[in-house]
Automatic annotation (TrEMBL):
This is LysR family transcriptional regulator. Keywords: DNA-binding, Transcription, Transcription regulation. Residues 20-77 form the HTH lysR-type domain. InterPro entries: LysR-type_TF (IPR050389), LysR_HTH_N (IPR000847), LysR_subst-bd (IPR005119), WH-like_DNA-bd_sf (IPR036388), WH_DNA-bd_sf (IPR036390), YidZ_PBP2 (IPR037402). The keyword Cytoplasm does not apply. The keyword Nucleus does not apply. The lineage of its organism: Bacteria, Pseudomonadati, Myxococcota, Myxococcia, Myxococcales. CDD domains: PBP2_Nitroaromatics_like. One of its GO terms (molecular function) is DNA-binding transcription factor activity. Belongs to the LysR transcriptional regulatory family. It comes from Corallococcus aberystwythensis.
Length: 334
């Protein structure tokens, strides 16, 4: 039975939570996630008939079919799709509120944290983070997943990601997010050793004559170099290759005559082991800030406070190497 339609000017009635079985909300969450009665039943550990009965109760309670049959199986109604995210967040909050957790002690903790970042930032923070984890928290596991600019705020809000390490957002991503600066990064230019056009220095004329690699996670747009060239009224560079990952680009340089302008810390990780020449950019390219971002709900959580401090210290463990890499080595004259 469907609930009577509400007129446009009517105020929605308050829901009497005292009359709702919480188990129905757990069943609803499983149904929305699985879009399949049998799989939803297995997810929460009940029989298929019990889940079918719960679906009938939910349809009566919400006045909506929630799941309807389509060509490829069951499909969510628009009302069901609207419920997915808020229901998932609400149940997660309730679980956290009811869960009794002992004080967080890194040395004895058994826990998993998820950090969303990109491969460059992962290469900067992971070595130091793993070193610190091994010493201080051997029972803590770390999951690193790729981050997209338009998805991390929701992932942080839902608690699916504990921390994001990103470039400072150009605009406020969400009023519920907090951030802390980890470090400021600048750029260097790199070509292979024995490059036919680059010897002891890289001047602007040579730089613009070369073919360039652009690291572009989405495969489009321009970089800081291109914006600087345009602001100075200089001709555009030729971007001969776009790659989506930071760690690919230096390897391509070693086997080509391309030039790469990239973050200093990234190049520092490669220049020692690969045949690369590193130079300061022949024109000033603005630096950028790297920040860690979390949701305000976890401001006072001791485990999250420890995680944020760990990431900050992990970045700093490589600071000595980074500072030494600022003394750019020049190739000997040939």
């Amino acid at each position: 039975m469907h609930a009577p339609m509400r007129r446009a000017h009517e105020t929605p009635a308050e829901v009497d939570l005292s009359g709702i079985n919480l188990n129905l909300m757990v069943a609803l969450d499983a149904l929305l996630q699985e879009a399949h009665v049998t799989r939803a039943a297995a997810r929460v550990g009940i029989t298929q008939s019990a889940m079918s009965h719960a679906l009938a109760q939910l349809r009566e309670l919400l006045g909506d079919a929630l799941l309807i049959r389509g060509r490829g199986g069951m499909m969510l109604t628009p009302r069901a799709e609207q419920l997915c995210a808020p229901l998932k967040r609400g149940l997660a909050e309730l679980r956290r509120a009811l869960r009794h957790e002992p004080p967080f002690e890194p040395a004895t903790a058994s826990r998993r944290f998820t950090v969303a970042t990109r491969d460059y930032f992962g290469s900067v923070l992971l070595p130091g983070a793993l070193e610190l984890l091994g010493r201080e928290a051997p029972g803590v596991d770390l999951v690193v997943q790729h981050v997209e600019d338009n998805t991390y705020p929701e992932l942080l809000e839902r608690g699916e990601v504990d921390l994001a390490v990103i470039v400072t957002p150009k605009v406020e991503a969400s009023p519920g997010l907090r951030q802390r600066k980890l470090f400021t990064e600048d750029f260097v230019c790199v070509v292979r050793k024995d490059h036919p056009a680059v010897r002891r220095k890289l001047d602007l004329h040579t730089y613009l004559e070369l073919s360039h690699i652009l690291i572009s996670p989405r495969g489009d747009g321009v970089g800081a170099v291109d914006r600087t060239l345009a602001q100075r009224g200089l001709p555009p560079r030729r971007i001969a290759l776009r790659v989506p990952y930071f760690l690919i680009a230096p390897l391509v340089v070693t086997r080509s005559d391309y030039v790469l302008t990239a973050p200093r810390r990234l190049i520092a990780a490669f220049s020692e082991e690969y045949a690369l020449q590193v130079f300061p950019p022949p024109l000033p390219v603005p630096p950028f800030n790297i920040v860690e971002v979390w949701h305000e709900r976890f401001d006072g959580d001791p485990a999250h406070q420890w995680l944020r401090g760990l990431v900050a210290r992990a970045v700093n463990t490589g600071s000595e190497n980074t500072r030494s890499s600022r003394r750019v080595r020049r190739a000997p004259a040939s």
